[in-house]
Amino acid sequence: MALTTDQIGFYQDNGYLLLEQAIPSSVLTSLRKTVDRFIDGSRAVETSNHIYDLGQSHSADSPRVRRLKDPHLRDPLFKQIAECNTIVDPVCELLGGTVRFDHSKLNFKHPGANAEIKWHQDWAFYPHTNDDILAVGVLIEDCTPECGPLMVIPGSHKGPVFDHHHNGIFAGGVNTDAIGNLVDKAVALIAPAGSLTIHHVRTLHASGNSSINTLRPLLLFSYTAVDAFPIFSSYDLQEYDSRILRGAPVHEGRMAALPFRIHLPQEPGTDSIYDNQESMQC
Fold first, then answer.
1. What is the tens place of the pLDDT at every residue in 84-115?
2. 0.70 exceeded by the pTM?
3. 173-177, long-range: CB within 8 Å, 24+ apart, which pairs?
4. Inside any domain, residue 20
């Protein structure tokens, strides 16, 4: 899928893009069946683990999965979609010609469950040597205003990197009083099933709870330019370079004069954005 000059310019100016109905209905059907299988599998799980992030009210009779972790490792279908030209081609254009797959997650908004995600910038979680990094969301079902859509603040990718700490501990969220009237500019990314959302790594974004009877699954893939190298992380180089989808491996990173905050210290024992952001309530 080739992007138009206007679409590229819109992304550069606003830090997000919405591509409607890009994924075929046949793929969506397969995705829904796969998602249902994982939701059903969660009935045998009592607490969050390396696969599932579960809500407090989760039970076998009433599953409350907030997140399926690393879905590309759980089923080949997710990996195929992460690497398909429909997604990678526009990502390649927006990242300047190279693409490295970084990570994935599948978020849910169960009815009556608290799965709100507060305002944050992905850059706070994984700063790199440059910010040619973005996330693509695949809408598996229709996304309406009532089901807790992804919200973005246009142009915020060009602004400051906000403090995501609370009481000195990395909480993964920004207090709304810190971003002031920026919230008034928020745009909800509402679109039919099969649409793609794209947001820059420094774009402020959030999502509320669902008020209707839907799971609102959102499949998220993160990609980086090949010459963007992580700060405060280490990888097996062979595995790391195996994720390159466009371009060739490089051993010299591209440095950009960008602000970043270290995502430390963190509370030990949790990798859940939902649990970490709960500390912001106190």
1. 999 999 999 999 999 999 999 999 998 777 88
2. yes
3. 173/117, 173/118, 173/119, 173/120, 173/273, 173/276, 173/277, 173/280, 174/118, 174/119, 174/120, 174/121, 174/204, 175/280, 176/118, 176/119
4. yes
> How many structural domains comprise the chain?
1
Q: What is the pLDDT of residues 65-76, one digit of tens each?
A: 999 999 999 999
pLDDT above 70: residue 274: no
Asked whether residue 169 is domain-assigned, the answer is no
Does residue 173 fall inside a structural domain? Answer: no
HSE, side-chain direction, 13 A CA sphere, residue 242: 5
User: Is 48 contained in some domain?
Assistant: yes
The enclosing H or E element of 136 equals: strand 133-139
Please give the torsion angle defined by the CA atoms of residues 7, 91, 125 and 259, in that order, rounded to the nearest 10 degrees.
-60
Whether residue 78 has pLDDT greater than 80 = yes
178 dihedral zone (left: phi>0; alpha: psi -120 to 50; beta): alpha
Question: Which domain range does residue 222 map to?
Answer: 5-155+183-249
For 60, residues 6+ apart whose C-beta sits below 8 A from its C-beta are: 43, 44
CATH number of the CATH domain containing 190: 2.60.120.620
Is 237 exposed, middle or buried, given 0-12, 13-18 or 19+ CB atoms closer than 10 A?
A: exposed
Q: Identify residue 204 by its one-letter amino acid code.
A: L
CB-based contact 23:86 (threshold 8 Å): yes
pLDDT reading at 148 higher than 60? yes
